[in-house]
Design goal:
Layout (H helix, E strand, L loop, with lengths): L7 E7 L13 E6 L2 E7 L9 E3 L4 E4 L1 E6 L1 H6 L4 E2 L6 H9 L9 E6 L10 H8 L4 E5 L4 E4 L1 H7 L7 E3 L1 H11 L3 H16 L3 E6 L5 H10 L6 E6 L4 H6 L7 E2 L4 E9 L27 H13 L4 E5 L2 H14 L3 E5 L2 E2 L4 H7 L1 E5 L1 H6 L1 H7 L6 E2 L2 H6 L4 E3 L10 H10 L16 H7 L19 E4 L8 H5 L3 E6 L2 E5 L1
Parallel strand pairs: 1-4, 1-5, 6-12, 7-8, 8-9, 12-13, 13-15, 15-16, 16-17, 17-19, 19-21
Antiparallel strand pairs: 1-2, 2-3, 5-22, 9-10, 10-11, 14-15, 18-20, 22-23, 23-24
Helix pairs in contact: 2-3, 9-10
């Protein structure tokens, strides 16, 4: 049945956006036609038509989106050594000594978090463990990378301690991600299947690359498991404008579309480079990597060319600068991350129509960092409920590979602000399940995808009621089937 179009989904209960339009709790039969929901009727009231998918009492929810993914880098993570558990520089270096050597002769690790390590990364420590094999460790936030001497020589770079930050670190990621197209597309296809198995019907791809070429190739090769909106970075803005690319323009049959101009305007919490009003614990207020005037000029140029904008802003100074640029330019789009927001800026998201593209799981990954490094900040850290209450449109994502591509993790983190039995972190910033589920659809919290007649038949069948699930239940939500435009992309 995978790849076939369903005509009727029988015997389901409906949860999430659209359920408020129904007279009772069901069960219902849902009829699909030409990629859309054509009818919803009480179970058994209307004869099924076309290929029948038996819901057998499952819950039907709108198809889920991840609004911030680095697709190729996330796909390649499956070949890289996971370092999330490393508790020190010495431990991370020792782990890399045993990591597999890839076909290109490099060892690559990913996901280390050094901000609270008792020791600092150094060339001596990494060289002693890894020798002459070029070895690369990419920070979980991708804003820094730790290389041994062999890797620095290979890349033609110099660093006294082996650590590269911001643009040099991004350049390392670009080089590591530049594998041959056949390898990349095979891994991306496998990633798309895994995403569909978690109920994902669409992603926003913000890879640090010229993504237009990659997605043209993937569309030509028949990759049709997800809807994709792909971004472009300032270094490729001239090429995008010259090609006449505008946000929303389709490739092929329209599953893949041109997305926003992505601009990285400050650093990160983990690398201690986010632009903040008050100093991090180490006494540094971070950096605006794109100044206010340049940022406004980029947004103005992109807007004139028909491109939406997605501005990475983590610190409160960066968020204020991004909001200023949206106001001056009249641009539409998102602020990505919005991890530290001044109280006075909360309502500006809603007033300016700037969506907050946020990653709820990061709040739990970073809770110890926030408590240690941002203790002096007066702005709000990870203010989900506050943004929502102020009228902001929330759009949830993972920033994979920073967190795994799994919307159910994001939903659980937003609703409960806890995991693994920990106490809720800043429980006052939780959001209701219905808001979290809406924020995980293509339209975001203010204009969510719905289960309603006329809506696209992007739907997911799950074997538990998400509206009553506890935190572990949401994280492990069993997905029975995923349909994209009525076509089955995943089925247990």
């Amino acid at each position: 049945m995978i790849g076939e179009r369903a005509g009727t989904v029988t015997g389901v209960r409906i949860a999430g956006p659209g359920s408020e339009l129904l007279p009772d709790d069901g069960p219902f039969d849902v009829f699909l036609e030409n990629g859309r929901i054509a009818d919803i009727a009480p179970a058994g009231a209307v004869r099924p038509r076309g290929l029948v998918l038996d819901g057998a009492g499952a819950w039907l929810v709108p198809g889920l989106w991840d609004h911030h993914v680095h697709v190729t880098q996330w796909a390649l993570a499956s070949q890289r050594h996971e370092l999330a558990g490393a508790a020190s520089a010495v431990e991370a270096a020792h782990e890399m000594a045993g990591a597999a050597v890839l076909a290109d002769g490099r060892r690559v690790g990913t996901g280390y978090r050094d901000a609270l390590w008792p020791d600092a990364p150094s060339l001596d420590v990494l060289d002693a463990a890894t020798g002459d094999i070029p070895t690369y460790l990419v920070n979980a936030d991708v804003h820094s990378a730790w290389l041994n001497s062999a890797a620095l020589r290979r890349e033609g770079m110099i660093s006294p301690d082996g650590v590269l930050r911001e643009e040099p670190a991004f350049e390392i990621s670009r080089r590591l991600n530049a594998v041959d197209p056949d390898t990349a597309d095979t891994l991306v296809t496998a990633m798309a299947r895994r995403a569909a198995a978690r109920g994902v019907v669409g992603v926003v791809d913000l890879d640090l690359a010229w993504n237009h070429e990659a997605w043209e190739r993937r569309v030509a090769r028949g990759l049709d498991l997800l809807r994709v909106s792909y971004g472009v970075y300032p270094e490729h803005l001239d090429a995008a404008i010259a090609a006449g690319l505008r946000s929303g323009d389709p490739l092929g049959d329209g599953l893949v579309r041109m997305g926003p101009l992505k601009i990285i305007s400050d650093g990160s919490l983990g690398t201690r480079t986010a632009a903040c009003t008050h100093a991090h614990a180490q006494g540094d207020t971070g950096v605006l990597t794109v100044g206010p005037d340049e940022l406004a000029a980029l947004l103005t140029r992109a807007t004139g060319a028909g491109l939406a904008c997605a501005v990475h802003a983590i610190g409160d100074v960066a968020n204020s600068s991004a909001l200023d640029a949206f106001a001056v330019s009249g641009a539409v789009g998102t602020i990505e991350h919005a991890q530290l927001v001044a109280h006075a800026d909360l309502a500006r998201f809603g007033r300016l129509g700037v969506a907050a593209s946020v990653q709820p799981e990061h709040a739990l990954d970073d809770r110890a960092l926030v408590d240690a490094l941002w203790a002096a900040q007066t702005a709000l850290a990870y203010p989900l409920r506050s943004l929502h209450a102020a009228g902001a449109d929330l759009r949830f994502g993972s920033d994979a590979p920073v967190a795994p591509l799994d919307p159910w993790r994001a939903i659980a983190a937003a609703v409960f602000r806890s995991r693994d039995g920990d106490s809720p972190w800043h429980a006052e910033e939780t959001v209701p399940l219905e808001v979290a589920l809406a924020a995980s659809t293509g339209g975001g919290s203010q204009n969510p995808s719905t289960i309603a007649v006329g809506s696209p038949a992007d739907v997911v069948l799950v074997d538990a009621d998400p509206t009553t699930a506890d935190e572990p239940g949401l994280r492990a939500m069993p997905v029975r089937a995923t349909l994209l435009g009525g076509r089955v992309t995943h089925l247990l």
